[in-house]
Amino acid sequence: MNNIFNPVYRQEYLFGYARGFNPYVDFDPNQSQGFILGFKQGRDEYESMNGKILHGIPKLIVTNKILEDFLLAGMLGMNINSDGYTAYQIDVIQKWYQSGVEKYDVKQSDYLLSILEENGIELI
């Protein structure tokens, strides 16, 4: 394995990772080792959240940001809308949401809602 602290290797790895997370991009074997490892890691992460590409690409793509939003919704005791997600994605989302529900603190939620209300922000 190459030195991950090498800036060129790291840049190639990150470029490959970004390309691998994009389900519409095909693998290009004529790349550097850093790109190939990054691509494979990105593809593995994509498929762990959205299902195998060979089963089809869903309309909505789940990312870490989206999963963190569902985790936060669970922590705040908010309802979620899972319309448009596949069964595989809903299973992943449900685990993150449930993790947030387990950390739900009513006092913290009330405090946040009062701050939002003071600033004129309403949650529907």
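Second entry:
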Amino acid sequence: MALGKVKVFTGVSPIDVNEELDETSAGVSSLSFDDPHPGRRTYFKLKSEFGGARITSERRLPLQGSMNFRDMGGYATTDGRYIKWGLLYRSEELIGLTEADRLYLQHCGLKMICDYRAEYEAELKPNPPIGDAQQFGIPIEVKSPRHRSRMNYMDMITMDKLHLLGPTGEMLTIANQRYVSDFTKSFATLFELLLTPGNLPMVQHCAAGKDRTGFGSAIVLLALGVPEQTIMEDYLLTNTYREEADLQTLALLKPKLTHEEDWDVLWAVMQARREYLQAAFDEIHIRYGDIDRYLEEAVGLTGSNRVQLQDMLLTDI
């Protein structure tokens, strides 16, 4: 569909994007300009001369101490609406945030930090304070049948125990299945927090921001009516944003690996792979038949609650 000329408006709040920035000529597909609000999150409204409009922003937040802190706004739902920008975030651990990063997030109005890490993980790398944002722990710890002890990658390499992770990808496939089977109360708490007035904007996070956070983000997007394919694409973005850091980590660890197959095992554990999240989707269908029954019977999101959540988080532009 032809858009004709498009006016670009900007602002530091997704509900107040009215500062006119520029106008494109008909047929122009891109526009470059300096950051209009350095140090602040910027939102844009694109308004066609024919009357249509869309609000957008950067997917990944430009933080120095987190490479995987991102906004789930802008995704289209099956009923033609869009997730509002600036309300639903997902991230890796937050301990690396700089003072400037924390101020940036404070300006974003962050109200709730939902932490899926186990208690010992949170104690080792505590979240820094971010303005007056509340911190709420929903500890989720999944151990594979072969891995019952609390060991990180370095411990397992040092002790030559990477085989405890099982065949490539097995541990995370099992983990995603168990998010569905064993942690219904945990994810019910997530929806309670989302529906509680004053808790938005909210960020969900774990250690790498891909497994526990990946599933928690996925079921929120499902509840809002986002198609599974879009959700999978969002899940896999972790590989794009963390690739450089993950490759650096592997390069540091490589001299310590004693078995050739250990590289593949570590890489599989560090990545977000389609089959991991798909295992969770499949488990939902096996146990509940469809996502609607899962949301209502497992995590307690009633039909009226779901409408309430959609009214809060969806927009027509």
